[in-house]
Every structure is written in C-alpha cells, then in structure tokens.
Amino acid sequence: MKTGVPWKAITIMAVLNLTGFAALGAHAEGVKSLRGVQVDEPVFVEPIARPQNTRVNRQFRQQPPLVPHKTAAYQVDLKVNQCLTCHDWTNAGEKKAPTLSMTHYADREGRQLDRVAGTRWFCTQCHVPQVDAEPLVQNEFAPSSKR
C-alpha cells in the first residue's frame, strides 16, 4: 500500500478552486456596493462630534445639566458608580467638580440620605455628554425665554 501525497486529489481540488474563483470574479462585476462606490474608492465621512470642555447653558427649566466630558469609559452599574468619585458631595470639593443637587440624596418619601438615592443612581438616564452636533432630525425647538 502506498502512503504518499495524493497528487491526483490535490490537482483536481486546485483546478476546481481556480475555476470557482474565475466564475466568482466574473459574477462580482455586476454586484453593486452598499456604500455607493467601488471598494477601492475612498469614502469620506463627517467628523465625529466631540464633547466640549466648557459648560453649555440649559435650554429649558429643570433640564438636567449636560456633562462636559466623555463618559463612555465610566462604570455605572448596580454596585459601582464612577461619576460619584468626583461629583459626590464628599469628593466634589477636592476634585473641583460640581456637586450633585440635594435632590439626588432624597428618597421617594423625601427623606434626606447620606448617600445617593437608588432612584438617582444611574446618572446617564438624565445626564448626557454635550456635543456641538447637528440635530439628527429637523425640529422647531426654541429655548425657553426665561432660564
């Protein structure tokens, strides 16, 4: 019994692969790109809006303040809230960060707590990073005349 390389099988597979790629190339000429241009043409995209480092005025009464820095890497879950490392009343002074409103330390019954209330724990429910970006949809919003 011979135990060498099966050259016939390798040759047949190579021929089938080459003819398959040739057929694929001929078929690919009629394929239209979802990007609207050929694969080798560059596509220019608008720059990503970046957070601003200055505070933006609020546009209506009781608007939650916007966050003037990135927050994507901040951990906020059931056990950890990294926002509080700077903004909790115990740390805000030394970090030179704005302190949370006292409403964040009140429970549902209005009792004042020494820690952030569970109903105010997930900061990103109300506060979002501010960016100077075009609106995603057209609207007729006008800021409140009395701020």
Mind explaining what this structure looks like?
The chain has 147 residues and is mainly alpha-helical. The protein has a domain at 50-147: Flavocytochrome C3, Chain A (Flavocytochrome C3, Chain A, domain 2). Helices cover 20% and strands 0% of the residues. The longest helix is centred in the N-terminal third of the chain and has 22 residues, at 7-28. The protein is elongated and about 85 Å long. The termini are far apart. Its main location: periplasm. It is found in: Periplasm. Belongs to the NapB family.
Q: What would a concise description of this structure say?
A:
The chain has 147 residues and is mainly α. It has a domain at 50-147: Flavocytochrome C3, Chain A, domain 2.
Counting helices, strands and paired strands, the structural category is: mainly alpha
Q: What's the CATH class label of the domain at 50-147?
A: Mainly Alpha
Q: How much β-strand is present in the residues?
A: under 5%
Give the ordered list of helices and strands. Answer: HHH
In CATH, the topology of the domain at 50-147 is named: Flavocytochrome C3, Chain A, domain 2
What share of the residues lie within helices? 10-25%
**Rg from alpha-carbon coordinates:** 29 Å
Instruction: Estimate the global geometry from the Cα principal axes.
Output: elongated
Q: What is the CATH superfamily of the domain at 50-147?
A: Flavocytochrome C3, Chain A
Q: What is the number of helical segments per DSSP (H or I, 4+ residues)?
A: 3
Any guess at the CATH architecture of the domain at 50-147? Orthogonal Bundle
Low-confidence stretches: none
Sheet with the most strands?
A: none
Q: What's the number of extended β-strand segments?
A: 0
Instruction: Quote the distance from N terminus to C terminus.
Output: 93 Å
